[in-house]
Design a protein that fits this description.
It contains two helices and twelve strands, in the order H-E-E-E-E-E-E-H-E-E-E-E-E-E. It has a five-stranded antiparallel β-sheet with strand order 1-7-8-9-10, with no helix packed on it. Strands 2-3-6 form a three-stranded antiparallel β-sheet, with no helix packed on it. It is mainly β and 204 residues long. It has two domains: 25-162, no CATH class; 164-204, no CATH class.
């Protein structure tokens, strides 16, 4: 049982930022991010020879993205001045956020929740958009994915979620993607680190 002073110290440690925590990037974790909500369910970004079309999970039917089906969100179309044909299968493919999985069979309850739960398409600047999804009905996971088209044609993707926990004894932080089951009492030197480059567990 923890005494009052121990409880205060532990509370202070949990409230302090983790020394290895990533800097908040998206509007989910960084409240200083300024954005505007897209008026349509898609945003077209052109940079250099690339044209990228990003969508929320509503159906879209426009010249740049004909008959794109409901549910398929994210980067839906990618074309180049030397290739006018969409890199992805039209209507059903792209760089999608589709699954939330906690490592158990509970995923069978809802395999494609990110497709169905409401999303908000946010415009950060002329080369950057975000897909924000409030806490979902089943998994209660809040998330935000940022797509940024860089000058060299790279599409930089950042994905952030609402819940990250710290294992202070081991010096780790880990994301909680829904109803994850965690194990208390993780030592400072977890056995999971004793794995060689071929995947063999050492010391057994």
């Amino acid at each position: 049982m923890l005494g009052a002073s121990s409880t205060l110290v532990l509370a202070a440690l949990l409230a302090a930022p983790h020394p290895h925590a990533a800097e908040g990037v998206t509007s989910l974790t960084n409240k200083a991010v300024v954005y505007r909500v897209a008026k349509e369910h898609f945003v077209k970004i052109q940079r250099g020879p690339l044209t990228a079309v990003f969508v929320d999970n509503n159906a879209v039917d426009v010249p740049d993205l004909p008959k794109h089906r409901v549910g398929y969100n994210g980067l839906a179309s990618l074309t180049h001045t030397q290739r006018s044909e969409n890199l992805f299968v039209p209507g059903i493919a792209g760089l999608n956020y589709e699954h939330i999985h906690d490592g158990t069979l509970a995923v069978a309850q809802e395999k494609f929740e990110p497709r169905k739960a409401p999303m908000e398409l946010r415009i950060i600047d002329e080369f950057t958009v975000e897909l924000y999804q409030p806490p979902t009905h089943n998994w209660k996971l809040e998330s935000c994915g940022r797509y940024r088209v860089l000058e060299d044609g790279t599409i930089e993707y950042t994905f952030e979620i609402s819940d990250v926990r710290a294992s202070l004894g081991a010096g780790f932080i880990y994301p909680i993607a829904g109803n994850s089951v965690t194990m208390p009492g993780l030592p400072g030197n977890p056995r999971a680190l004793d794995v060689d480059e071929k995947g063999n567990i050492l010391g057994l």
